[in-house]
């Protein structure tokens, strides 16, 4: 019976040492991989929005206002295309960084299959990569927001004409997206400072 207790206590002791070693390295958890997966998935959804915005506009398109002076000119369509391309570039930048970090974590993992999410990666590199990816997503959202304002102007009429539908749509878009971005940035800031 004492042999069992000795073996049992040795087993528990080794479990505690393994747990301490694993939990003492913050860069070795599956939380990072899950966060990176989420970021890539959200960026994919935003990328679809970019292409939807591009498909809904064409040069010379008339707005839904009955006044032809409220129709968007070629400069608005040009700005829309520029903002969509820049937005897509930021989302692609963010997703590629996140995918690269995920790849590094998976390639550096231990040879034990059960420890697939316990890779030892430089914590500073991981934090910088995740921060770069988050900044890319925020910048992509800002340019997507600007492009959606241009889509609204093309479809509902220029804001300078005072189109009530366009103004209400832009105000709702700005309010909701800016609030969401403020929460997202605050969460990132909190996560990196604690």
TrEMBL record:
The keyword Transmembrane helix applies. Signal peptide: none annotated. The keyword Acyltransferase does not apply. The chain crosses the membrane at residues 39-59, 80-105, 125-149, 170-192. Keywords: Membrane, Transmembrane, Transmembrane helix. It comes from Platanthera zijinensis. It comes from the Eukaryota. This is Maternal effect embryo arrest protein.
């Amino acid at each position: 019976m004492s042999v069992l207790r000795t073996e049992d206590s040795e087993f528990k002791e080794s479990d505690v040492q393994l747990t301490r070693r694993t939990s003492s390295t913050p860069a070795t958890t599956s939380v990072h991989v899950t966060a990176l997966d989420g970021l890539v998935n959200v960026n994919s959804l935003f990328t679809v929005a970019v292409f939807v915005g591009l498909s809904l506009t064409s040069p010379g398109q008339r707005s839904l206002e009955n006044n032809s002076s409220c129709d968007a000119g070629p400069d608005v369509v040009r700005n829309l295309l520029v903002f969509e391309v820049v937005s897509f570039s930021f989302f692609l930048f963010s997703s590629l960084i996140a995918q690269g970090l995920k790849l590094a974590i998976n390639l550096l993992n231990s040879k034990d299959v059960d420890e697939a999410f316990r890779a030892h990666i430089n914590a500073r590199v991981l934090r910088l990569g995740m921060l770069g990816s988050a900044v890319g997503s925020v910048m992509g959202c800002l340019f997507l927001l600007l492009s959606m304002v241009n889509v609204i102007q093309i479809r509902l009429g220029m804001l300078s004409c005072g189109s009530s539908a366009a103004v209400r749509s832009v105000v709702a878009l700005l309010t909701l997206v800016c609030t969401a971005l403020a929460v997202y940035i605050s969460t990132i800031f909190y996560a990196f400072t604690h």
